[in-house]
């Protein structure tokens, strides 16, 4: 039975700010009681129930405890993906809730929000589990600004957008996930290192001032903490999980915020992506609606695909600025929060998929070995029976011969007297013994045969296992080389911003440039298929040897290929794609010639 989990929803109502009070704003329409948020409007009295409701007076600590974030951190430690995201209109307190109170430079300095508290909680739990597991922690931080993805810990700074003007690419991977390419990932040993990185990235995040918020986030941000854990007792037990902490940009009405020009364009992009998010939430919350959620329509929903309707534990924090003037926005936020609470996720433990297969195969091998040893025992047992019968018969023969002289006369007499009846009895006994012997031999034969089959199966599994180990080794080597390679530009670049010394890893996604043996076999099979009906054998042979030559040349070329520098990676990747296109073109040509 799969572990189904509804998205948990918390609503936080922020207090009226001093300047709002001075301007005469009031809250006469929104209140809360226990787990309920109450709309006090005369004609439209309504209450909404949520998992957690945090009233105006709730401190940051109370929000952290009230939302049971500690439990979510425990799930990450156990190997589940977790997402916490803040949602609400502009100025409703999302950044305050997630990061804390910001200073003028836009860095959270006081009243730590959920992100710093969660980081501390995570490292406390790592410490508690240190005797059972070895943990590694990696962080990355990105923002989606004007529908482009930027690395907040990479080259980009607020003033320097030319480096990543086109934004980072996103691609779909084999595990059914969207991943961002070339995103910097930093290994961190302590909570302080993670918080330092987080602050560094927050400083790079784009903010602007408008009528509703003097430090409004103009981008959606995703701070990701990836945890790898290895069981110390059983090192094959390798688990990776991630904790995503998301601060969305707030929806805004341009007529109220008074934004113009660049900021107005930002507002449009923010509203567009939030609209897609709302569509996804609406579709997923309605079990009768069979429409496919439009995840692909915005970068935000692509990256939140696993979190909303996927395999994560997810907490949504809906933020409310309870001013009467925001009545419509607040009702809309409450409605979407209610819908989100109907969405079912299926969290799964993230064992490494390759190791999972290897472990399964190992289990199969063990059970086959067990069966084999049982079968061997059977064979031995039956062989013993057959041998015993043989020796018994021999013994009988010897005895008969030894006593033959003594018994001869008596037997002769008895034989003469009862010749016919004795002969019948002996014949019957002999036939019975014969039958049993044949049965036993057949059984032994069957067992030998199944023994042989099992041996072959074991052999196959071993081979599969070996090839997977080889593949893992190859991937590890490639990963190591990438890390090494990424180390260089990092050291060479003189960054004005200090990063922790443990910066080690980069998730730059590399496509395998050479052919895998399976691909070669498949390619040759395709070739055979294409030329199956070609009458001209010489032509077929020459094409076949040309194909083989190309494959050999390609693999020599790609094996000797230097791994590309980050800057030339894209170019090399296109070159590999070009190679593959050429092969594809060649095959199409063969097919045309054939026709
Ligand atoms: N619970 C709270 N207590 C006191 N002040 C708060 C609270 N929540 C928010 N604020 C203040 O309200 C203002 C707006 O908050 P914040 O910037 O977090 O909103 P936001 O939802 O992130 O807005 P945007 O979407 O525009 O980025 C800030 O000055 C913040 O300090």
TrEMBL record:
InterPro entries: Kinesin-like_fam, Kinesin_motor_CS, Kinesin_motor_dom
Superkingdom of origin organism: Eukaryota
Transmembrane stretches, start-end: none
Keyword Nucleotidyltransferase applies: no
GO molecular function, one term: ATP binding
GO cellular component, one term: cytoplasm
Kinesin motor domain residues: 6-343
PROSITE patterns membership: KINESIN_MOTOR_1 (PS00411), KINESIN_MOTOR_2 (PS50067)
Positions with biased composition (Basic and acidic residues): 485-497, 531-541
Subcellular location: Cytoplasm
Amino acids binding ATP: 88-95
Any Pfam family the entry gives: Kinesin
Keywords: ATP-binding, Coiled coil, Cytoplasm, Microtubule, Motor protein, Nucleotide-binding
Swiss-Prot/TrEMBL GO biological process terms: microtubule-based movement; mitotic spindle organization; spindle elongation
Coiled coil stretches, renumbered: 358-385, 444-485
Protease in keyword set: no
Region (Disordered), start-end ranges: 485-505, 531-560
Cross-referenced PANTHER family: CHROMOSOME-ASSOCIATED KINESIN KIF4A-RELATED
Family named by the database record: Belongs to the TRAFAC class myosin-kinesin ATPase superfamily. Kinesin family.
Protein name in the entry: Kinesin-like protein
